[in-house]
Amino acid sequence: MASRYSMWSVFRNGLSGQQHWDRVWRDPEPASHYDVVIVGGGLHGLATAYYLKKMHGIRRVAVLEKGWIGGGNAGRNTTIVRSNYRLPGNREFYEHSLSLWENLSHELNYNVMFSQRGHVTVLHSPGAIDTFSRTYNTLRMTGSDGEFWDLDTLKKNIPHLNYAADARFPIYGATVQPRAGTARHDAVVWGYARAADALGVDLIQNCEVTGITRDADRIASLQTSRGVITGDKTAFAVAGHTSQLWHMAGLGGLPIESHKLQAFVSEPLKPLLDHVVAFSVGGGLFYVSQSDKGGMVFGGDLDWYKSYAQRGNLPMVQNVAECATALLPCLGRVRLLRHWAGVMDMSMDGSFFICKTPLSNLYLNAGWNYGGFKASPASGWYFADLIANDRPHDVIRHHDLQRFARGYIIDERGAGADPKLHG
Ligand SMILES: Cc1cc2nc3c(=O)[nH]c(=O)nc-3n(C[C@H](O)[C@H](O)[C@H](O)COP(=O)(O)OP(=O)(O)OC[C@H]3O[C@@H](n4cnc5c(N)ncnc54)[C@H](O)[C@@H]3O)c2cc1C
Fold it and tell me: Which residues contact 27 (CB under 8 A, 6 or more apart)?
């Protein structure tokens, strides 16, 4: 088990040539049986395992990951953390998540590099000001933080935006969440993995679930690339691959589609942008921040077709480049260093599922769309609570699969029942 990181451990290991650091987590052989088996070693699976041990004292917990932990969306996102959600359920959930982020480095004894640099949504019409003011007033009235910046304040804080009077998208002002920001995605994965391992969770990498055996309305066993594993309870946290696992369990269809989202990083630049900036108008969507190494980290919309490939296509590169230069013309001559894609679990209303399933010992965590990074601490917290107590917490009671039949859709964007339109 890894010892705690501290000033003293840095000093001591410095004196001995950095040769005696502990392994960050163990590499155990899978046992044949666990109390809870979590499928998916992304952030949601790891956080769930951590809180199952920490908050609920569940003894034997395993996370099964088909590749390496954090090799999915957890390690592919643009790392934006915010809680500017409006609808009941989402609002409390994401605010709880943000409050967990604020103490996460201490909680995990691992620097997740959470940087509360503020999230700025640039507004391009009087109508947008009305709509976003309503959301941000809701945030303020329910205990979160939100501000409106007029044009002068915005120009002072972010001088490089395109403020030209004849700009394609003239800027009217911005809404801001000061406590929002970014974190280092790999560090969050490693932090949760290390902390879960230290509590005794078995993290089993290169262990793909390839088949599921049922005993009536229960999961009897999981066939994996490392043998058969059974669990009293099984939990799916596989993001874009949820439909595949659901199918293996013989459960038919899900209100989820798998779509691709790309991320981009430029060559390193001198300090240019102190905030996360988001821009959404018409068919364009663009969000950007600057990493500690100086690269501009940015992204846009989905690739508009369903796929399990972890790579994107060129039309979206063009679309994102157009948005980038419309908002920040000074990026026009900056060179792109890397881009990649992840597989998103897009739900019909853009909101997530943390819920029980038709099988009595199977639990579902899915439908994160392209917003699940910020959600991961609360997702693990509420999913662990559900698995341990076998009933949903009040905050997530509507985030189940039956909400469509009940007519209770949770549609932040008001975009309608099309998974492509939700972010
Ligand atoms: C380009 C991009 C940008 C994004 N930007 C943001 C952002 O700025 N802010 C934000 O909040 N969110 C963002 N997201 C979304 C966020 O990354 C995801 O919603 C979140 O990471 C999903 O949860 P996860 O970490 O558990 O998923 P994943 O990391 O994908 O974990 C699922 C794991 O399950 C494993 N798995 C799948 N099938 C099996 C199997 N059969 N057996 C065993 N293991 C299996 C996979 O290998 C994978 O590691 C972005 C995503 C992408 C791709």
Answer: 203, 205
Ramachandran category for residue 363: left, alpha or beta (phi over 0 → left; psi -120 to 50 → alpha): beta
Tell whether ligand 1 has an atom less than 6 A from the beta carbon of residue 77: yes
Residue 29 φ/ψ, nearest 5 degrees:
-75, 145
What does each C-alpha distance from 356 to 34, 364, 372, 391, 398 come to in angstroms?
19, 6, 19, 8, 11
Q: Are the CB atoms for 370 and 298 separated by under 8 Å?
A: no
Between the CA of 45 and the centroid of ligand 1 the distance, in Å, is 10
At 376-404, the pLDDT tens digits run: 999 999 999 999 999 999 999 999 999 99
Q: From the CB of 78, is ligand 1 less than 6 Å away?
A: yes
71-99 confidence digits (pLDDT tens)? 999 999 999 999 999 999 999 999 999 99
Token code pair at residue 403? 């909400």
Q: Ligand 1 within 6 A of 300 CB? A: no
* Ligand 1 neighbour 371 (Cβ under 6 A): yes
Q: Which of 44, 73, 285 to mutate to test the pocket of ligand 1 (most atoms within 8 A of CB)?
A: 73
- Residue 58 CA to chain centroid, in angstroms? 25
Burial class (CB in 10 A: 0-12, 13-18, 19+), 269: middle
pTM confidence score: 0.97
**Looking at ligand 1, which residue's alpha carbon is closest to its atom 51?**
77
Cα Rg, the chain, nearest whole Å: 22
> Mind giving me the DSSP string for 351-385?
--EEEE-SSTTEEEEE--TT-HHHHHHHHHHHHHH
**Is 354 near ligand 1, meaning CB less than 6 Å away?**
no
What's the rounded Cα separation, in Å, for the pair 185 and 112?
A: 8
**Which of 290, 373, 383, 412, when mutated, tests ligand 1's pocket best, judged by the most ligand atoms within 8 Å of its CB?**
373
Containing 343, the helix (H) or strand (E) segment is: strand 336-347
For residue 276, list its beta bridge partners.
119
